[in-house]
């Protein structure tokens, strides 16, 4: 495309936006709201991604063995569990090893003194089992429960529940976001429709004198894309500011950083800007396509 | 050259606007198309600039079968043909100059060439001093001259006009006729549907008469032949 032509297309697109300024404004607003919600989703999704990774690690379950199970039986049982489908890893932890582990995890806090090895050790023998992934942990749990010598299974369900609610939350935002995106595309398509109607005579003349179909279409694509672009700028700005605040607040506070490990600002800025801008322009161009196909008879 | 071989045009509502038309118009000819209202003149003209496709038969423009032209190539076909209408089809918010420039812009003529070509076209139609005027500030005859300037600015081989003097008084009609004649003298083929008896009978060009979708008369130096 010639540079003159390109400049002209942008000029025409701009003219279209200014002419239907109220409708364009509404469309920009709809895109902005959509992308704001989408951006919140991205922030959660990216951060939850790292949280679910952690939860995923913790999804391993403790299989508590009955008191009478001997060390030899326990080793055999461990091998057996290892051979089950969907099991990634199984490790026997004796009562005494358990004491060490607890003390290590709790950094030898005072109350761990009640834990003693030998005769008075009230911890059970256990086998730590890690399923291949979170989604099969229930199956693994059921399979292990039925084995001889198993008293019960601990730990797995809470992790799974947490994970489930996290995923559900993600899906709710996603569905909501998609619905809004459709609405925004529809609003854009409506403003483009108005521009097409306002330009009916111009389009007729263009066809008559032999303008190519793409020459006629381009300004409408640019108009839609531009609405999408402008609609992305505001949410990007707001979300980045808010996120920066959060990151400061959380890392600036106590040594809780481990509890809620947030993705760094730089990475998040990249994800957010890229995805919001991309989706904004996509919604805009998609809205144009809807109208061009329906109303621009060339 | 425009050729039609056994051309039928049947609209979706079943009306047979053209019924077996055979015609050849050579390069450089001047042709009047006459006939009563509803005879099929406009349909005949629309087939030439591919506004309508023939239902059956073949329409050739410079040997190209318009029915076979791919959709995306139709614009290139249209660049060879300038079209003029009874109602001018000017853009009301643009000056005479911009209306003509619009046609050059639409076919992506380099910006540098636009001004000289627009000025040349407006000079040819005698509107050099009205370039800045909006259509609403121009008389009907002047508006039609702007539309002719727009039709010729791309140097098409054909000018096709559907009742270009239909809204004009006799004096303005004659101005438009002289203009089209001059354009024809420069080598452009002109096909013009008209109801203007006086003009047809005075100019004595080739006359094609259509009635009820059939060519009933085709004579060089013919007369209008109807009493309107
Ligand atoms: N787009 C159309 N759809 C249906 N019928 C049409 C259409 N255009 C023209 N006609 C009909 O075709 C016939 C010829 O019309 P037209 O070619 O406009 O004749 P003319 O220009 O000689 O008055 C008329 O009966 C008219 O009503
Ligand atoms: Mg007609």
From TrEMBL, chain A:
Keywords: Cell cycle, Cell division, Cell membrane, Membrane, Transmembrane, Transmembrane helix
Keyword Cell membrane: yes
Residue ranges occupied by any ABC3 transporter permease C-terminal domain in the UniProt entry: 175-298
TM spans (from-to): 21-46, 172-197, 218-243, 268-292
Membrane topology listed for this record: Multi-pass membrane protein
Chief site of localization: membrane
Biological processes per GO annotation: cell division
FtsX extracellular domain location: 59-153
Family affiliation: Belongs to the ABC-4 integral membrane protein family. FtsX subfamily.
Role according to the record: Part of the ABC transporter FtsEX involved in asymmetric cellular division facilitating the initiation of sporulation.
Name assigned to this protein: Cell division protein FtsX
Organism of provenance: Baia soyae
UniProtKB/TrEMBL annotation, chain B:
Keyword Cell membrane listed: yes
GO biological process: cell division
Gene3D superfamilies in alphabetical order: P-loop containing nucleotide triphosphate hydrolases
Key words, A-Z: ATP-binding, Cell cycle, Cell division, Cell membrane, Membrane, Nucleotide-binding, Transport
Annotated transmembrane regions: none
Known partners and oligomeric status: Homodimer. Forms a membrane-associated complex with FtsX.
Subcellular location field: Cell membrane
Any one of the GO CC terms: plasma membrane
UniProt protein name: Cell division ATP-binding protein FtsE
GO molecular function list: ATP binding; ATP hydrolysis activity; transmembrane transporter activity
Cell membrane among keywords: yes
SMART domains (alphabetical): AAA
């Amino acid at each position: 495309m010639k540079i003159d032509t390109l400049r002209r297309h942008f000029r025409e697109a701009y003219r279209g936006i200014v002419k239907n300024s109220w409708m364009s404004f509404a469309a920009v607003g709809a895109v902005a709201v959509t992308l704001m919600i989408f951006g919140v989703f991205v922030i959660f999704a990216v951060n939850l991604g790292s949280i679910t990774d952690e939860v995923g690690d913790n999804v391993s379950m403790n299989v508590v063995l009955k008191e009478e199970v001997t060390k030899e039986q326990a080793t055999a049982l461990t091998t057996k569990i290892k051979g089950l489908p969907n099991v990634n890893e199984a490790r026997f932890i004796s009562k005494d090893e358990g004491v060490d582990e607890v003390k290590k995890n709790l950094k030898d806090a005072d109350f761990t003194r009640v834990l003693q090895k030998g005769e008075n050790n009230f911890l059970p023998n256990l086998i730590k089992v890690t399923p291949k992934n979170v989604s099969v942990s229930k199956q693994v749990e059921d399979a292990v429960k039925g084995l001889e010598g198993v008293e019960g299974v601990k730990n797995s369900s809470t992790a799974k529940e947490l994970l489930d609610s996290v995923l559900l939350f993600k899906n709710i935002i996603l569905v909501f976001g998609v619905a809004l995106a459709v609405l925004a595309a529809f609003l854009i398509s409506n403003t483009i429709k108005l521009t097409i109607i306002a330009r009916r005579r111009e389009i007729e003349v263009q066809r008559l004198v032999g303008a190519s179909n793409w020459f006629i279409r381009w300004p409408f694509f640019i108009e839609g894309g531009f609405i999408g672009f402008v609609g992305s700028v505001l949410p990007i700005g707001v979300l980045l500011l808010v996120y920066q605040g959060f990151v400061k607040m959380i890392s600036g506070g106590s040594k809780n950083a481990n509890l809620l490990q947030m993705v760094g600002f730089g990475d998040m800025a990249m994800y957010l800007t890229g995805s919001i801008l991309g989706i904004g322009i996509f919604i805009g161009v998609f809205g144009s396509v809807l109208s061009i196909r329906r109303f621009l008879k060339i | 050259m425009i050729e039609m071989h056994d051309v039928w045009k049947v609209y979706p509502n079943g009306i047979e606007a053209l019924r077996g038309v055979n015609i050849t118009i050579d390069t450089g000819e001047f042709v009047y198309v006459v006939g009563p209202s509803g005879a099929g003149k406009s349909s005949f003209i629309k087939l030439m600039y591919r506004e309508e496709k023939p239902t059956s038969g073949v329409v050739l423009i410079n040997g190209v079968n318009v029915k076979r032209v791919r959709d995306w190539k139709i614009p290139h076909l249209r660049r060879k043909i300038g079209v003029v209408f009874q109602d001018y089809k000017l853009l009301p918010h643009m000056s005479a100059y911009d209306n003509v420039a619009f046609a050059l812009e639409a076919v992506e003529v380099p910006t540098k060439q636009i001004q000289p070509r627009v000025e040349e076209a407006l000079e040819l139609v005698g509107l050099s001093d009205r370039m800045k005027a909006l259509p609403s500030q121009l008389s009907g005859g002047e508006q039609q001259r702007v539309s002719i300037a727009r039709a010729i600015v791309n140097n098409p081989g054909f000018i096709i006009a559907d009742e270009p003097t239909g809204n004009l008084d006799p004096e303005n009609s004659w101005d438009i006729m002289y203009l089209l004649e001059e354009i024809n003298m420069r080598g452009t083929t002109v096909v013009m549907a008209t109801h203007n008896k006086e003009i047809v009978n005075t100019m004595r060009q080739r006359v094609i008469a259509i009635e009820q979708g059939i060519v009933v008369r085709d004579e060089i130096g013919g007369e209008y032949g109807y009493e309107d």
